[in-house]
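Complex record, two chains
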Amino acid sequence: MGRYLINRLLISIPTLIATSMVIFGLLALAPGDPLGEFALNPSITAEVRENLRISLGLDQPLPIRYVKWFYSFLTGNWGWSFTSLSPVRDLVAQRIGATLAIVGLAYLWGGLAAFPLGVISAIKRYSLTDQAITLFAFLGFSMPTYFTGLLFIIVFSVNLGWFPFVYDSTVQVMDWNTLIQQFKQSIMPITVLGLWEMATLMRFVRSATLDSINQDYVRTARSKGLQEWVVINRHVLRNTLIPVVTLIALRVPTIFAGALITEQVFRVPGIGSLLISAIQQNDTPVVMSITFIYGILVVIFNLVADVLYGFLDPRVSYSK
Amino acid sequence: MNQPPSEELVAIRDTDISDADELAMKPRTYWGDVWRHFRRHRMAVAGGIVLIVIVLATALGPFVYTVSPKKIDFAHSMEQPTATHLFGTNDMGQDMLARALWGGRISMIVAVFAMLVGISLGMAVGAASGFMGGTWVDMILMRITDLFLSMPQLPLLLLIVYLFRASITKLFGAELGVFVMVILVIGILNWMPVARLVRASFLSAREMDYVKAARALGASPWRQVFRHIFPNVMGPVIVAATLSVGTAIITESMLSFLGLGFPPDTPTWGRMLYESQNFLSLAPNMALSPGILIFLTVLSVNALGDGLRDALDPQQRNR
C-alpha cells in the first residue's frame, strides 16, 4: 500500500507541473503588454517604464519567469489583486471554504442517493421502478445546472418563498437562528449540484452493478444458499464500488465546473464567483491563481480517489 | 394433434411467392439493420423527431415568424405569454419567441462546428495512437490525452476566453470572432474521450483477422486504416459525436450565461438566461423559454445518442 501511494503521488507531480506550464504559457502567448496602461500615461516616461519592467522581472526570458512564478506560487506568494489591492491569497482564503463545503456536501448527498437507486435499478432491471429511475437520471443530466438553479429560484424563492433568493455572505453561524438561516440559503445550491451529480452517477452505478451481478462468484454465493440481501450487500456491492470510485475521480473536474456555475447562479461567494468577477474586471493575478488552484484541487481529489481505489481493491495495492 | 394451423403458418402458406426471387434479391445491409433497430427505440425516435423540429424551427422559423428579435417596445415589456407574443417579452419588450428562434440558430451552429472540431481532433489523435499502438508515438499521445483529462477544463476555458478574446475579436470582428473562439475552445477541450475511444477500437480492430488479411495481401497502412479499420470504428464515433453536440450546447450556453460568450445584442439561449437573472420574480418567462429549449435540445440529443449506441453496435443487438 505504501509503495502504491508513493507511486500515485509521484505521478501527480508532473501533472501539476504540466498544468502550471499550460496556464503560464497561455498568459505568455496572450497579446497585450502588462505595462500597456502606462504607455498612454504622459507622466511615466519610457525610461521609468523600462525600470518598472526590470523591477518586475519582465526583462528576463520566459523559462526563468515561469520558474519564479511557479516557485512563488508554491511558497504562497500569489501576487496582488489589481482591483481590491489585497493579496490574492487572502481573497482566496476568504472564499475557498464556501466552494469546498458546497462541492463536498453536494457530492456526498448525490453519491449517497445515487448508490441505492442505481443498485435497485440494476437488480430490478426492466421493471417499472428501473424505467422510472432511468428516466429520472436521463432528465437529470440533460438539464444544465444553470437552468435547474434558475428554476429552483423561480419555484422555491419567488413562488413559494421558502428560501432566500441570494446567498448572504455576512451570515455567521452564532446561534440557532443563524444556523437555520445558513441552512436555508445553502440548501438550494447544494441540491442543484447534487441532483446533477446524482443523475450521472446513478446510470453508472446501474451498469457497474449489472456487470458484477452476472459474475461467477455471485452465482456461487446464491447457490450456497445465502440470502439475496447478503449476496447483494457482500458480493455485488463491493465490486460495484471499484469502478464507481474511479468514475468519481474522473468527474472531479466536472463537478468543480458545475460548482462554479452554481455559485454564480445563487451568488455564493466561492472561488468560482471570484474567478468570474475577476475576469469581468481584468484582474489577471486573481484569474491566474484561481485557475491554478482549480488545477491543484483536481489533482488532489484524483489522488484521494486513487488512494480510496487502492484501499477498496486490495489487488491494486498488492500487485505494485 | 388436430389443432388448427397457427396464424404464422397460415401467413406463410398464403404468402404470394410469385415475386420470391425479387424478395430474395433484396440484401440486408448494415445500415438497414441499424435503422430497423433504431426504430424500435421509442425514446430515441422521439428524440430524433423533437431535434428535427427544433432544427427546422431555428433554421426556417425566422423566415416564417418575421417579428424582429431586436425591436424594442417598452410599452410591452416583461409580458407573460399572450397570443401576440407566444413566449412573452423581455425587459426591453423584445419578442421572446423571435429571440429564441434566432438564438437557437447560433447555439446549434456553434454546437455542430464545435463537435466537428472535437471529433476530428479526437479521431486524428486516437487513430495515430491506435495504429502505432505500443510505440513511443502512442505513449506520448496518450500521456497528452491523460494530461488534458486531468486539467480543470472549465476554468481553463474561461482563462483562454479571457486572455484571447480581445485579439480574436479584433481579427474577425465582434460576432464572428466570438463564434470562432467558442467553437475552437469547446472543440479543443472535448476531444479526449473520442481519442481514447478511437484508440481502443483501433487496437482491437488491428488484430482482427480481416485487417491481418488485408495486411498480408500487401495493403498499404493508409488503405488498412481507411478501407478496413475506419468503417468498423465509425459506430462508437457517431455516438460520441451525437452526444458531444449536447455537451457543446451546454458549454456554449454556459459561457454566454456567465456573460463571457456572444455580445449582448446577439441573442443566444445562454445569453437570454443570463439576462433573465435579474427579472426572475417579474418575468419568469424570460428564463423558462430559453431554459426549456436548451433542456429539450440536450435531452433529445442524448436520447438520440442512446438509441444510436444500441442500434449501431451489432453485438449489442442480439442481447
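Note: Chain A has a mean pLDDT of 81.
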